[in-house]
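Hi again,

Forgot to attach this to my earlier email, sorry! This is the prediction with D-glutamic acid bound. I've pasted everything inline since the attachment limit keeps bouncing my files.
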Amino acid sequence: MSAHLPKESASAAIGVFDSGVGGLSVLRHIRGLLPHENLLYFADSRHAPYGAKSQAYIIDRSREITHFLLAQGAKAIVVACNTATAAAIHALRQEFHIPIIGMEPAVKPAAAATRSGVVGVLATTGTLQSAQFAALLENYGKNIKVETQACVGLVECIERGDLSAGATRALVAQYVIPLMEAGADTIVLGCTHYPFVKPLIAEIAGEEVVLIDTGSAVARQLRHRLQEDGLLSENRLQGTTICWSNSPEKEAQQLIKHLVGEDVVVEVVLDEAGQIEGI
Ligand code: DGL
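Structure tokens for the complex follow:
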């Protein structure tokens, strides 16, 4: 069944979502490139992490959140999550006939950048086991060695706001050091949460190592698609940003404000009884 049709007007907002706060690393690039657009962000923190969940579960979550963002007036959707893109982008594009932008680990630019011929990829288990990732390796990984590392537990640290705590550092070291030992000179941050611990990754990997994420490429792709479809906002004022979180934790709103780095409105999704709503 088809969803709510969005307002196909240029003045409508762009909806962005992730399993939690990770997609805010992408939202920051979108805001930088498209200062006049109104942005809506949904952090599905109550259901994070998506990393080890089934494809059917992630499709359900992605559909529900897309319906929510369309009901708020989104004209396009950015799936600011590598795991959800791999699991659900085809299902979303079949159901919702608006621009839907997804993302994938930056294996292609990393293959072009590496000098040692060894590229490390940090991502979730779901992303690394997906058919999309296998296709990426098939297309761009043939002439290089790709060392993959599923970072179990790291998303949870970031969701708690522990961006530099000792436990987070230990986990990053556990995942990054084997890539260095394998000779990687380029590391792909294949999960949108990881840019928030980039300083830690850089410190452990050393300054010679190039770290690549896809936030800016996604923002450019979004602008290109909106331009093509005549959906770029003609607004000349600074766009607004509204974020929703379904996290039961009080600190969630503060964390979102901190990670966005600009003045944002953060709403918690509550039902009439003051409980976290179904979504
Ligand atoms: N931020 C997500 C990604 O890009 C998902 C992390 C998770 O929920 O496991 O893959």
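The chain has two domains: 13-103+216-268, 107-213. The first strand starts at residue 13 and ends at 18.

That should be everything now.

G.
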